Q: What sequence folds into this?
């Protein structure tokens, strides 16, 4: 359920006009609920002290539920993005392994133009991968850096 709400919220969040529309709908719904609660309590003859406390509780519970739903949806959306990044990293790894096989195979080619074509194609694919997935390369470099410098 939260996955669907997360996808819907992502769809809405990507468009400014839909964000404004959703905000207006939330304001009208909140105001309508407050108005309805006010009329019900006035109709029941609730004392003024309890009336204010009940409205405060109503607003607090509503805000708490709204924040909970938003946090759960954001959590679900982050999980979806995390899974997509893992798939992308796996695809990157497989492509690079395949490129390595092609590079290793180019040494068996005796025809110089074909060898040059293979090497150029591998470099072109490698450059494209680096443009598509620069953060993975950054993470590798970051892990490879020494944590302490050695002084002579």
A:
């Amino acid at each position: 359920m939260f996955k669907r709400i997360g996808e819907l919220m992502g769809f809405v969040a990507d468009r400014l006009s839909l964000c404004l529309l959703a905000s207006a709908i939330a304001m009208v719904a909140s105001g309508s609920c407050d108005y309805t609660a006010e009329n019900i309590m006035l109709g029941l003859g609730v004392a003024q002290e309890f009336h204010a406390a009940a409205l405060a509780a109503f607003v607090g519970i509503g805000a708490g539920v709204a924040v909970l739903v938003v946090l759960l949806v954001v959590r679900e959306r982050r999980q979806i993005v995390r899974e997509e990044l893992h798939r992308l990293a796996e695809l990157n790894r497989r492509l690079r392994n395949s490129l390595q096989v092609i590079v290793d195979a180019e040494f068996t080619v005796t025809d110089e133009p074909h060898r040059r074509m293979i090497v150029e194609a591998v470099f072109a694919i490698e450059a494209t991968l680096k443009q598509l997935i620069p953060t993975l390369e950054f993470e590798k470099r970051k892990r490879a850096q020494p944590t302490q410098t050695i002084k002579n």
Summary: Residues 2-143 form one domain. The first helix runs from residue 2 to 13. The two ends are 60 Å apart (CA to CA). The CA atoms of residues 106 and 114 lie 8 Å apart.
